[in-house]
Automatic annotation (TrEMBL), chains A, B:
GO biological process, one term: tyrosine biosynthetic process
This protein's UniProt keywords: Amino-acid biosynthesis, Aromatic amino acid biosynthesis, NAD, Oxidoreductase, Tyrosine biosynthesis
Gene that this sequence comes from: proC_2
Catalysed reactions, as listed in the record: prephenate + NAD(+) = 3-(4-hydroxyphenyl)pyruvate + CO2 + NADH
Span of domain Prephenate/arogenate dehydrogenase: 6-295
Entry GO MF terms: NAD+ binding; prephenate dehydrogenase (NAD+) activity; prephenate dehydrogenase (NADP+) activity
Pathway(s) where this gene product acts: Amino-acid biosynthesis; L-tyrosine biosynthesis; (4-hydroxyphenyl)pyruvate from prephenate (NAD(+) route): step 1/1
InterPro entries from the UniProt entry: 6-PGluconate_DH-like_C_sf, NAD(P)-bd_dom_sf, PDH_C, PDH_N, Preph/Arog_dehydrog, Prephen_DH
This protein's name: prephenate dehydrogenase
Family affiliation: Belongs to the prephenate/arogenate dehydrogenase family.
Keyword Membrane belongs to the record: no
EC number of the protein: 1.3.1.12
Length: 306, 306
C-alpha cells in the first residue's frame, strides 16, 4: 500500500489514536506518524512502546507540516486543542477528529479552523473497555464503521482522501448529517452506556447483597454490563454532556418502555412479556447477519481458568 | 471418574439439560442418562444428535428407576411437571431443578414431592443466548457457580451427592437461602436482562432511526444488549413472573439511580458523572480478578470477516 498522507499528527494518544498509529504504520499509509498527548506520562509511555515515529512535547510541534491532523481527545477538550493548533496548521492540511459526538465538536472546532484548511469530522465506531496508549492495536477498525460528517462546503477531494485512509485501516465508511449521527449514536451507544453505568451503580449501592456476591455471581448477565461500564470516565462524561438532548430523549423513551414492562410484571401479563422478548430476539439475528457481532454463544468467551 | 448416579433423568432438553447430558456422559458421571421433552420435535432432534442414552416419550417413563431427576423446564412449568412425575419417582431418589428463581419453584414443586424423595433445588449460573437441544455443550458449567438452596430438613447425604455431580461437571457450588438467592439473582441477572430487553425494544420502536442503522452501527455498545435480549422468551417471561418482588425492587432502585444521572446530564454536572463512572469501573476489575470474565478487550471478540 502506498502512503496516503505524508505526515499524520495524532493529538491525544489513547485507544483510538494508538490503534491508528499501529494501523497506519503497519500498512505504510503515511510516511511519518507524529504523536502528542497533554500528559507527560502518556508521552513517556508512547515513547517506551515506540507507538509513533516521533512523540513531541507540544501540539504545535506535532501539527507542523502535517497534512492530516487527528484530534483524538475527549469531546470536551476539542475546542481548546483546536484553538491551540490553529496557528500552526499547514495550508491545505486536513483536520479530522474521532469524537463520539459530532454536532458539538463541529460547533467547538470549526470556528478555529483557518481558511484553506479542510475540517472533516469523523467517528470510528470501534473501541474496547480499555484506554490509554497501551490499549491500541492495528486491527481495531477492521470491518467496523467509521462515520464521516463533512460540512456542506468541504472540499470533496479532502473527504475522499480521508475516506481512503479509513478504508485502508480496514474500516467501512458512510457519510451522515451530524445531528442524525448524534441521534443514531444516542440509541446504539450513548444510552446503552449510561444504562450500563447505572445498573452497575445499583449493584454497587445495594447493601443487602454483598459486593462479593455481585462479583461471584455476575456471569448470569451482569458481567456484560460491567464491561461497558469499565469504559473511560472522562470520555463518557464528555459524551453525555455534549450529546445531552439526544441522550435525554432516548433515556426518556427507555424509561417509558421500562415502566410498561415493569407494569406487565406487576400485573402478571405473561403474554405481553413473551411477545416483547420475541421481538427483541429478532434484532440480534440482524446484527449477526450484518457481520457486526459474532454468532458464537456468549461472544465466544472461553470459560476462564480457575 | 466413577459414576455418581446410576440413572439420571433429564426433564426438558434445552441448553442446560443438553449441557448436563454432554458433561455427564463425557465424564462417565452416571451409568445412563434418560431424556424427555414435552415437544415431539425436541425429542426427535435429541434422538438425531444422540443427546442422551435414551429419549423417552413420557416424563413418567423417564423418571422410572432414576436416582436423580433434573427438572430443566421453564420456571412456570415446574409445578405441572412435578405433579406429573410424582407417582413414578423411585423411593430414595433425588429431585433437583435448574430454575433461575428458587422460592417460587420450591413453592410449586415441594408439595408434590412424596415422602422418601429428596428435593434439592438448584441453579447453575451458566448459559448462553442460544436455546434448544442443539445448544448444549459439555464445558458450559466449567468454573461457573451452581447454587443449591436445600430446605432445612433435606437429607445432607443427598445434598452432598448432588454437590459431587455438580463439581464433577466443572462447576463451583455454594448453598444459599432461597429468598436471598432470588434477590442476588435479581441484581446480577434478572434486572439486567429486563433492561437489555427494554433497550433493544426502544431501538426497535424508534422510527427516526431506521432498523438498518441500528443494526449496522451496533458495535458501539448496543450489540452487547442484543445478545442478552436474544435469550429464550419463555424462560425469561417465567423468571420475571416468578421473581416479581425482587425484580421490581431492583428495577425501582435502577430507575431512581438513572434519574439521578439523567439529572446530572441535564444540569451539566460533569463531576458527578465522572465520579460515578470511576466507581463502576472498579467493579469490572473485581469480576475479572474473581475469574468470572475474560480480561481480553471486548470479550476477546475477533473482528468478524466481511
Amino acid at each position: 500500500m502506498s502512503a496516503i498522507y505524508d505526515r499524520v499528527a495524532l493529538i491525544g494518544l489513547g485507544l483510538i489514536a494508538g490503534s491508528m498509529a499501529h494501523a497506519i504504520r503497519e500498512g505504510g499509509l503515511a510516511r511519518e506518524v507524529v504523536g502528542y498527548a497533554r500528559s507527560a506520562e502518556t508521552r513517556e509511555t508512547a515513547r517506551e512502546i515506540n507507538l509513533c515515529d516521533r512523540i513531541v512535547d507540544s501540539a504545535a510541534e506535532a501539527v507542523a507540516d502535517a497534512d492530516l491532523v487527528v484530534l483524538a481527545v475527549p469531546v470536551g477538550a476539542m475546542a481548546a486543542v483546536a484553538a491551540d493548533i490553529a496557528p500552526h496548521l499547514k495550508p491545505g492540511a486536513t483536520v479530522t477528529d474521532v469524537g463520539s459526538v459530532k454536532q458539538s465538536v463541529i460547533d467547538a472546532v470549526a470556528p478555529h479552523i483557518p481558511q484553506g484548511i479542510h475540517f472533516v469530522p469523523g467517528h470510528p465506531l470501534a473501541g474496547t473497555e480499555h484506554s490509554g496508549p497501551r490499549a491500541g492495536f492495528a486491527s481495531l477498525f477492521r470491518n467496523r464503521w467509521w462515520l464521516l460528517t463533512p460540512l456542506p462546503d468541504t472540499d470533496p477531494a479532502a473527504v475522499d482522501r480521508l475516506t481512503d485512509l479509513v478504508r485502508a485501516m480496514g474500516a467501512k465508511t458512510d457519510r451522515m448529517e451530524p445531528a442524525h449521527h448524534d441521534l443514531v449514536l444516542a440509541v446504539t451507544s450513548h444510552a446503552p452506556h449510561l444504562i450500563a453505568f447505572t445498573m452497575v451503580g445499583v449493584a454497587d449501592h445495594l447493601r443487602r447483597v454483598t459486593d462479593e456476591e455481585v462479583v461471584q455471581y455476575s456471569a448470569a448477565g451482569f458481567r456484560d454490563f460491567t464491561r461497558i461500564a469499565a469504559s473511560d470516565p472522562t470520555m463518557w462524561r464528555d459524551v453525555f454532556l455534549h450529546n445531552k438532548d439526544a441522550t435525554l430523549d432516548i433515556l426518556g423513551r427507555f424509561t417509558e418502555e421500562l415502566f410498561v414492562l415493569q407494569r406487565a410484571i406487576r400485573m402478571g401479563d405473561g403474554q405481553q412479556l413473551f411477545d416483547y422478548f420475541t421481538r427483541t430476539r429478532a434484532i440480534r439475528r440482524g446484527i449477526i447477519e450484518a457481520g457486526q457481532d459474532t454468532a458464537a454463544p456468549d461472544f465466544g468467551r472461553i470459560a476462564p481458568a480457575g
